[in-house]
């Protein structure tokens, strides 16, 4: 079927050749069947055919014989709109040119100025010989990603046989050399015959040792190092982590493709001011450099600034803090039981004291004592009955002698009840000391309700990310923090030191901060460590200028490193993870003052209350004695008065 279609297409073009006079023009090297095969082989749906002297009239039958849409451009006309020549096309485009035309060179120069020899366009160039090919292509901005196929007819073949060549330059702007290599042949009978043993990526991996220019963002470096020494060093891994991680990726990439990078340092990523990008992004946007080693996250405003490659590193802003102890000194001894349980215990104690008091009253009756032959008396007051129940409940024993069976049953029931309550209560207290305290602050909303103080890393990325978060709880927390902006924005070291002391939540990128935290926190402090996410993980990656020929190579190489485990290896060094709480088999946990404070408050309260009552009793007793003396003196005076009066009468 394939040969039948080829013969039919060949017969059609033969008929066209017989009808057109231009087909006999000297120097005509284009072949319509080869164009059709090239378009089909690359699965192109759009093709721009350029020619001069009206030779493209031979190709009027293409749109009727193929699914590909063809556009015709006469490059001999001076009014070619180069800026809009490919603007309306969204698919990959095939472009056919004839290098034998005198106007072709100027046409291609204009194309070259606009960097149209890009991976998005497939170029099929018909050339009379190799010398003409090299003369033309060496004048053009052809780079490593160019999809240029050169077709040169075999001598004396009447355009029935062609040699096909691949043409590219590692970097025409950085002194690369043009490379034209034969990749196959084409014959009218057999069609395309390409040597596809290697991919374009593998065929063009030698960049001839050329030097590209790169930029890396390093805001701060240790005082005793240059920025290159800092990039090479493994000390202070929490500083400039993204740049140092990507730097090692590009070191491997340089060995893979045989090129070098001349690095320049930028103090900041940069932003847009008065329509002009500043910092590292500005250098990329103006094509002052070829590569940015530092990774950037994707934002809408970056669309016209640079071209992203592939994600190599992911940042994760979080609030990190030492979780406060959940023990409230005022309720520590009531935590083991819920309120309903305490109510039940109090009710049981009151009822037990009530029944016990009545039983003691019955036992103290004289007839009952005679029947049991026991002269001892149990105090049947309300206070003694309640005190007795509390003594049993608190495992302090009892001092009564129950005589009746009913009193013995009640006493035994209270003893069993107190043992069970004591077991549950003690088990909870001991268990709470031996197990890790639960962490209740897990969301931004809960974090905002806490009594923690807050701080933010002074990194531009963290500040921007926090400022752009629109979730309601984050907005409320941001307003609270930004009321004292100068105090709450601090560098990484100060923020982590405050976090270590406790009672402080620090907003930073944990992928780098955790590297430092592992070295500065003790095991107990690590167990208290908690983080709260307020924004999802943000991937970042190296970037290049728009229409950069290196985009494809950087993407493929980073993906290959990921498959080979190289990224994982470096991630273990440069990407921090939350340290795990050490698991200890035996851990002797002392009771701290926070847990014990309630007992101290209770005994102090009891001492003060008893002292106040003692004073009250003394005052009352003194008052009663004074009244008694006054009454006695008054009676005595009355008695003496009566006696004197009686003596006078006698």
TrEMBL record:
- All copies of the Ionotropic receptor 75a N-terminal domain together span 32-216
Record membrane topology:
Multi-pass membrane protein
Pfam families this protein is in?
Answer: IR75A_N (PF24576), Lig_chan (PF00060)
Write out the annotated subcellular location.
Answer: Cell membrane
In its UniProt record, a GO molecular function of this protein is: ligand-gated monoatomic ion channel activity
Q: Which residues cross the membrane?
A: 340-360, 381-398, 410-435, 599-620
Coarse class of the primary localization is: membrane
Indicate whether Endoplasmic reticulum appears among the record's keywords: no
Q: Which GO terms describe its biological process?
A: detection of stimulus involved in sensory perception
Q: Which InterPro entries match?
A: Insect_Ionotropic_Sensory_Rcpt, Iontro_rcpt_C, IR75A_N
- Kindly indicate whether the keyword Hydrolase belongs to this entry: no
Alphabetically sorted, this entry's keywords are: Cell membrane, Glycoprotein, Membrane, Receptor, Signal, Transmembrane, Transmembrane helix
Could you say which residues form the signal peptide? Answer: 1-23
Question: Domain Ionotropic glutamate receptor C-terminal: where?
Answer: 341-483
Cellular compartments per GO CC = plasma membrane
From what superkingdom does this record's organism come? Eukaryota
Read off the PANTHER family from this record. Answer: GLUTAMATE RECEPTOR 2-LIKE PROTEIN (PTHR42643:SF33), IONOTROPIC RECEPTOR 20A-RELATED (PTHR42643)
> Family per UniProt?
Belongs to the glutamate-gated ion channel (TC 1.A.10.1) family.
What protein am I looking at? Ionotropic receptor 75b
